[in-house]
Amino acid sequence: MSISNFKKDKKIRSLAPKDFKEETTTVWSFKQRGDWATHSGVYRGNWSPYIPRNVILKYSKPGEIVLDYFCGAGTTAVEAKLLGRKCIALDINDKAIELAKKNLDFNLNGLFDQIYEPELLIGDARDLSFIKDNSIDLICAHPPYANIIHYTDHKEGDLSFYDIDGFLNEMTKVAKESYRVLKPGRQCAILIGDLRRHKHIVPLGFKLINIYLNAGFRLKELVIKRQHNCKTTGFWYKNSIKYNFLLLAHEYLPIFEKPKELLSSKEDYTSYDKNVSLSIETCNCRKTLKEMETTTVWILPKKEYINFLNKNIIKRYATGKKYKIVNLSFSSYKNFKWEKVEKEDLSLLLIYSSIFENFDISKDDIKNYLSKGVELIDMLTPFLNKTGHVVIKLKDLRIDSYIIPVAKLFVDSISNDFLKLKEIIIITKDEEIKDFHKDNQEKDLKINHEYLLVYEKVK
Ligand SMILES: C[S@@+](CC[C@H](N)C(=O)[O-])C[C@H]1O[C@@H](n2cnc3c(N)ncnc32)[C@H](O)[C@@H]1O
To answer: Distance, CA 162 to ligand 1 centroid (Å)?
Structure first.
């Protein structure tokens, strides 16, 4: 059972967070989890109320209907009530619904003309047959992350008892139901994290995004939610270096949109063959660095961004003397040759891609980049030594107001038996972004994160 302290009532001090500002970029970071109204961390694995608050404010209006089919202790339902939205919230766990009812037992003392009490139900997210087609204005939900925390005593249908493949299979049903009940043109936000198994990363976040995209959704935003409870000093710092792994410090909040009209076909990024290829240029960097990054989120000084990036990557992943930093750009690498580099010689191949700095990049360019980039990695893998690493820096792009999740597409495209995904690192600059929405009618988020995909040679 994941509820502790079940009977204790919480004294309400305020009904809203202090000095709240809506998020305007793709990296969301809340130092405190939030304890206004009845919010508390009593239910294990509950999400910070700042997440549903931001999502509800951005993507719905007062009086509209919000659905959370993984209600837990009712964080979304409490926010919906506080913000004057109607809400349907269900959970397979009857104890969670009991707790959610307690959490919703507060008075709004004439704050709104109309107060909507959320509808709380014991139910299964895979079967929303009690909800009509095209009737929900917003979905905002936080599933279990496969079977890392169990929520019931093995109740039939509890998705927290499925292993990764089984979980994704069941989520296919949830995504299909989500698509059916949501109104066209409206949004569905899902929080999900990655898992580490046998020292490598299972990109559960990217896999779940694929499931919702296959159900017919488009990707409106891909938000990174930072986790603040990560231990980064003492014991953890030493072990992170000794065993060369990073503490998982981020989750993904993809915000999907149901298209207004039925899409004729799904976009395919897997096959592309235009007669353009990538070129390689080699650069150099020194290794000295006082303190290494130890979690999967690196916030680096804006002024020395690339310098800090290189140093951190080289210090952690260039375990032998020889490494290469390359830059890929469109032209030809047909006659590519490295001087003084033998097979199995390199401990690190660090790949930057200057094509992403180009403002006019098209979908065709991305398709071309992906197919050639993957081909290039296959060509260069033999130069890596037995435990060598490939690190590639990528970023999501927005084209025609939707996100092209380039890092996810890259992970989808790599099928090299010699390489295993070791880390997905989020990198961002320590800059303050002010008033981004001033000139942005659509209220799209500013993409201010990039990715490092770290692959390890395993054969
Ligand atoms: C990560 S928790 C959600 C926490 C919630 N956001 C909160 O703040 O309290 C996931 C929830 O999914 C529920 N769950 C698991 N399988 C389910 C299913 N098939 N249908 C509905 N809820 C399910 C679990 O009981 C658990 O409460």
So the answer is: 13
pTM for this prediction:
0.93
Query: What are the pLDDT digits (tens) for 119-142?
Result: 999 999 999 999 999 999 999 999
What residue segments make up the domains of the chain, in order of their start?
Answer: 27-257, 278-457
Pairing assessment for the beta strands 136-141 and 195-197 based on DSSP bridges: unpaired
What per-residue confidence (pLDDT) applies to 6? 42
Distance 357 CA to ligand 1 centre (A): 40
Of ligand 1's atoms, which has the minimum distance to the CA of residue 90?
A: 21
Amino acid in the structure at residue 279: S
What secondary structure does DSSP assign to 194-235, as a single string? -EEETTEEE-HHHHHHHHHHHTT-EEEEEEEEE------SHH
Which of 42, 69, 159 to probe ligand 1 with, by most ligand atoms within 8 A of CB? 159
| Domain 278-457 in the same topology as domain 27-257 | yes
Measured from the CB, is residue 93 less than 6 Å from ligand 1? yes
Q: Could you name the CATH architecture of 278-457?
A: 3-Layer(aba) Sandwich (3.40)
Is the beta carbon of 151 within 6 A of some atom in ligand 1? yes
CATH of domain 27-257: 3.40.50.150
Mean pLDDT of 417-434: 91
